[in-house]
Amino acid sequence: MKTILCYGDSNTWGCPPIESFDEIQRLDEHTRWPCVLRTALGADYRVIEEGLGARTTVWDDPFEGAHKNGRTYLLPCLESHEPLDLVILLLGTNDLKSRFNLSASDIAYAVGTLIDIIQRSECGPGGNAPQVLVVCPPPIAKLTLFAQMFAGAAPKSRLMADFYRQVAETYGCAFLNAGKLIKSSDRDGIHWEAEEHVRMGQAVAARVRDLFTASD
Hints:
Number of domains: 1
Radius of gyration: 16 Å
Distance between the termini: 13 Å
CATH topology: Rossmann fold
CATH class: Alpha Beta
Number of strands: 5
Helix content: 25-40%
Structural class: alpha/beta
Strand order of the largest sheet: 2-1-3-4-5
Strand content: 5-15%
């Protein structure tokens, strides 16, 4: 059996588009993209959901808490679930918040820091490193509730894919541009509608099959 860890933010956790901070809910297990991935891959795969709302790549959030830093929890997470055959990284959207003042290249390089941790972790089968699939989030759409929090984010988000691809190539890992597959919702600009989760899960499943076929 192959074990896959999906390490991401609220879109991996399954938060639908929201119009009020009082209405945050979670999509069901038939809809969230890691669950769709699990169903599409079948019984020979174990898929672990590890999504956290507001998770960044490597930054402590001054308002939402240091625990939102994706770097500090990554190694404990890897070790608690080892051996892992594949880690899917889908982070970077929250790095676009205006409070961090980061460029698209800064965010991609931060993803590279996470890749390095995974590749040095010895948390794969036989004490080797897990494979890594880097997924660039889709661009920011029409911002409503999050307009001030993500001021200036949309143009940067459209530049991220090229930098993510370069970082993936540098570290020798697989890459997927979610912006070619799905879109963020105009209801809040950040999160995905249910049908986009389904589309995403199915597309990732196809990419995962290709990865394991190539490595067998």
